[in-house]
């Protein structure tokens, strides 16, 4: 009668910009026994996770905790807790995820002002600052690393300008956290959202966020505690309560803080995963981890170029953990991806919008960002391209990548 077999998922080499391969130590942590969400053994793990998240975000902010849900849950929680209908938001868009910020802010009734540039470009920071002076928004919402185009928007001047102009700077650092510098305090970013399934190498399902007092003050005014758990200290009349219950950061704060207010049931196994993921990040060291991402990116890029292929994002603002390859003329990009998966068990990504069918995207994130993966994807891509009749420099890709590793080894001696 029972026709369903036990799960037996195939082993893959995942080289997409997320989700990526999960560190085996994280998978192990996820299989440890469940605890109640108010068990002191568990709340201690919550506190430890907050402490480690602060270090990963390079911040002294008190608030740093995960939202349960995928990365966009973190974005949605921050935006819906901060924005009330009619609030003005400026969003510079340079790829798909800029539109996601727009979409979420719009659904919260904000007045949206956008700036757009071509996919593959980023903004001059001064352009954004000038636009802020004109628009006078309450919030600037911007993506740090655009996985759709493989570009990274510099923020070091934008943050301080926001502070000066009294604008809240909210940043989607989903793709960059744990893979390259996201200097929350130094760049004066007010709220930052990270992701788990990218450079942290934790499964999708949580979104770590951090925010400062400026954001906390805005949220505090809108705080409304659920009637069933409210006490005398909670106001019952609130003018513009946060529209979402699930994503209400003011209530979540009281679950992550000493009050331990009952809100949702915490996703215990995911918290184990995140705790282990950030522990591994700090054990490796932020600087070492960012250098590792740069090294494997370099080997991949040199290999791809030596093969004779073009890099779409070969620009100074390239996102270190995403390499976009121009699909050669006459080659069916989807057929190449299918063959990589079927014959080699390797997954690479296509792209969205104006770039769909034009580029492949290879992610080098977290645990997937390893030498053997880089060499494997270069070898397999070469074989598959030959199979598809593309004219490439045979044998050159792997040699170029090996050269990068060899000189890195020499430099390390
Ligand atoms: C992956 C990604 C997201 C969305 O994450 P989900 O976990 O799919 O909700 C948002 N922003 C950026 C920049 C991303 O790379």
Automatic annotation (TrEMBL):
<dbReference type="GO" id="GO:0004760">
    <property type="term" value="F:L-serine-pyruvate transaminase activity"/>
</dbReference>
<dbReference type="InterPro" id="IPR000192">
    <property type="entry name" value="Aminotrans_V_dom"/>
</dbReference>
<dbReference type="InterPro" id="IPR024169">
    <property type="entry name" value="SP_NH2Trfase/AEP_transaminase"/>
</dbReference>
<dbReference type="InterPro" id="IPR015422">
    <property type="entry name" value="PyrdxlP-dep_Trfase_small"/>
</dbReference>
<dbReference type="InterPro" id="IPR015421">
    <property type="entry name" value="PyrdxlP-dep_Trfase_major"/>
</dbReference>
<feature type="binding site">
    <location>
        <position position="361"/>
    </location>
    <ligand>
        <name>substrate</name>
    </ligand>
</feature>
<keyword id="KW-0663">Pyridoxal phosphate</keyword>
<dbReference type="InterPro" id="IPR020578">
    <property type="entry name" value="Aminotrans_V_PyrdxlP_BS"/>
</dbReference>
<dbReference type="Pfam" id="PF00266">
    <property type="entry name" value="Aminotran_5"/>
</dbReference>
<comment type="similarity">
    <text>Belongs to the class-V pyridoxal-phosphate-dependent aminotransferase family.</text>
</comment>
<dbReference type="InterPro" id="IPR015424">
    <property type="entry name" value="PyrdxlP-dep_Trfase"/>
</dbReference>
<feature type="modified residue" description="N6-(pyridoxal phosphate)lysine">
    <location>
        <position position="198"/>
    </location>
</feature>
<dbReference type="GO" id="GO:0019265">
    <property type="term" value="P:glycine biosynthetic process, by transamination of glyoxylate"/>
</dbReference>
<keyword id="KW-0032">Aminotransferase</keyword>
<feature type="domain" description="Aminotransferase class V">
    <location>
        <begin position="41"/>
        <end position="350"/>
    </location>
</feature>
<protein>
    <submittedName>
        <fullName>Alanine--glyoxylate aminotransferase family protein</fullName>
    </submittedName>
</protein>
<keyword id="KW-0808">Transferase</keyword>
<dbReference type="GO" id="GO:0008453">
    <property type="term" value="F:alanine-glyoxylate transaminase activity"/>
</dbReference>
């Amino acid at each position: 009668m029972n026709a369903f077999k036990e799960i037996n998922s195939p082993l893959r080499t995942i080289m997409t910009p997320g989700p990526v391969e999960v560190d085996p130590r994280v998978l192990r942590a996820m299989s440890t026994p469940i605890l109640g969400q108010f068990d002191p053994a568990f709340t201690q793990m919550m506190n430890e996770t907050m402490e480690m998240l602060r270090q990963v975000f390079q911040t002294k902010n008190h608030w740093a905790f995960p939202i349960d849900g995928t990365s966009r849950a973190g974005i949605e929680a921050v935006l819906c807790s901060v924005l009330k209908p009619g609030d003005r938001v400026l969003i510079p868009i340079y790829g798909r995820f800029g539109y996601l910020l727009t979409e979420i802010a719009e659904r919260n009734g904000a007045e949206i002002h956008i700036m757009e540039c071509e996919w593959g470009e980023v903004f001059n920071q001064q352009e954004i600052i000038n636009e802020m002076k004109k628009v006078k928004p309450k919030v600037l919402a911007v993506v740090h690393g655009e996985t759709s185009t493989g570009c990274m928007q510099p923020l070091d001047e934008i943050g301080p300008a926001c502070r000066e102009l009294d604008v809240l700077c909210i940043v989607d650092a989903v793709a960059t956290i744990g893979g390259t510098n996201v200097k929350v305090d130094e760049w004066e970013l007010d709220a930052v959202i990270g992701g788990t399934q990218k450079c942290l190498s934790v499964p999708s399902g949580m979104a770590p966020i951090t925010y400062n007092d400026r954001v906390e003050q805005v949220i505090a005014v809108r705080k409304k505690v659920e009637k069933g758990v409210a006490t005398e200290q909670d106001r019952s009349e609130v003018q513009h309560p946060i529209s979402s219950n699930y994503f209400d950061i003011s209530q979540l704060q009281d679950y992550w803080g000493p009050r331990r207010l009952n809100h949702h049931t915490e996703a215990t196994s995911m918290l184990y995963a995140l705790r282990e993921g950030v522990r591994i990040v700090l054990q490796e060291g932020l600087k070492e981890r960012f250098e590792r991402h740069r090294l494997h990116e370099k080997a991949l890029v040199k290999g791809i170029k030596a093969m004779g292929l073009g890099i779409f994002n070969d620009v100074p603002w390239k996102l270190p953990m995403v390499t976009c390859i121009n699909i050669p003329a006459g080659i069916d990009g989807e057929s190449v991806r299918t063959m990589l998966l079927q014959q080699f068990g390797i997954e690479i990504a296509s792209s969205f919008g104006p770039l769909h069918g034009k580029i492949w995207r290879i992610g080098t994130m977290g645990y997937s960002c390893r030498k053997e993966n880089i060499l494997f994807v270069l070898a397999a891509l070469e074989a598959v391209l030959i199979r598809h009749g593309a004219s490439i420099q045979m044998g050159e890709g792997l040699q170029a990548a090996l050269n990068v590793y060899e000189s890195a080894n020499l430099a390390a001696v």
